[in-house]
Amino acid sequence: MPKKATIQYREFKANGALRGMDLKAVLVDVLRRRTDAHRIGENARLRAIDLDGDGSHVVLNKVSSPETWDGPVFCGQIIHVKAGADIQAVLQSLDDDTDEFLVQNIDMGRGARIVKGVLYFAVNRNHVGLIESTAVRGVVLERYIAALLRQAGELDPDDRIVLAGKFLASGEKGLSEFSDLTLTARPSHRAKAMAGDRLFDRQAAEVRDEGATVLDVLRLMGWRDEALARLEAEVPEGGRVEGLLKVFIKDRRHKLRIPRAAIDEALRNVDPADLGLHGDGREQGGMVKLSVVKEIATEGSLLDPADAMVKIIEALREWAAAGKIDCRFDGSDLPP
């Protein structure tokens, strides 16, 4: 049964030392190289990278057919796997009458690796479409591509891969530049039925994305633990602390205008609903990232990789046809 998935647009910013780089061309060039007597693009073992140094690995797992690599589009599947063969599960039916459900360790077998999450992407020159999962976000793709290119000698240690988002004003022309922005931190809630007077972050199911809470932001701004404790004590049961962070740049007494491109890059991993722009007018609550929801075929509970890649390419073509991006397709662009 098909699932709905959100396809986001990102753009590789080839600035500074990376000026002139074609991301798709460089990726294909690296994958065609040989190491340990194997072509990198034909051996997934050579594409596994421990990004965090914790024994888990991010892998460019499935790639589009090498016969299509000279065409305009390259597609891939990124997986994040962790060591360990045990997972925790409840084997009973939730319809059973019982005083508690038994949580058990299930042994997946020696050598098994647990998949934390999957991301699908397609790249045309420096235009990228992607489908994130809860555990594998666009920032993981950025870090992985950077690590892969560093291993191949195509990227210096200090160079970064930035896949900027594209923020749009919903329903009207947006500001081309702004004087300041507001950023909403995640609320910190007081539990209604927990022992002790402490605040806790909302669980993953209750928030749109991971992010810092108001208390985290205050701590980063230099608030001491005693001051935070006094603030916590004022929150009633079931209440919460909310806050807006206002950001602007000043030259002496004057605010400097900030180009919209700064938002696309610096806040590419922030939910647009949490942003407000102020300049010659105001944008708030109506901002959207360039994205589209499409139905993707499934294999069990997972997205079908081939269909996911095709749908991402469709999205890039639709945005290009609508003039939202300057992505161009020549020849066959649907890899099998």
- Count of runs of 4 or more consecutive helical residues: 6
* Main sheet properties: 8 strands, antiparallel
Number of extended strands: 27
Overall geometry comes to: globular
The separation of the N and C termini measures 21 Å
Strand content: 25-35%
Structural class: alpha+beta
Q: Low-confidence parts lasting 5 or more residues at pLDDT below 50?
A: 191-211, 276-286, 332-336
Mean pLDDT across the residues is: 77
Kindly state the percentage of residues in helix.
Answer: 10-25%
> How large is the radius of gyration?
23 Å
Number of separate structural domains: 2
Q: What would your notes on this structure say?
A:
The C terminus is likely disordered. The longest helix has 17 residues. This protein has 6 helices and 27 strands. It is of the alpha+beta class and 336 residues long.
Summary tags:
34% strand, 8-stranded antiparallel β-sheet, disordered C terminus, 336 residues, 27 strands
Q: What order do the helices and strands come in, and which of them pair?
A:
Layout (H helix, E strand, L loop, with lengths): L2 E10 L10 H9 L2 E2 L2 E2 L8 E2 L7 E7 L10 E10 L2 E5 L12 E5 L5 E12 L2 E5 L6 H14 L11 E2 L2 E3 L7 E2 L1 E5 L3 E3 L8 E3 L12 H7 L4 H9 L6 E2 L2 E5 L1 E2 L2 E2 L2 E2 H7 L8 E5 L1 E4 L2 E3 L1 E6 L1 E2 L2 E2 L1 H17 L15
Antiparallel strand pairs: 1-10, 1-11, 1-25, 2-3, 4-5, 5-6, 6-9, 7-8, 9-10, 12-24, 13-21, 14-18, 14-22, 15-16, 15-17, 19-20, 22-23, 26-27
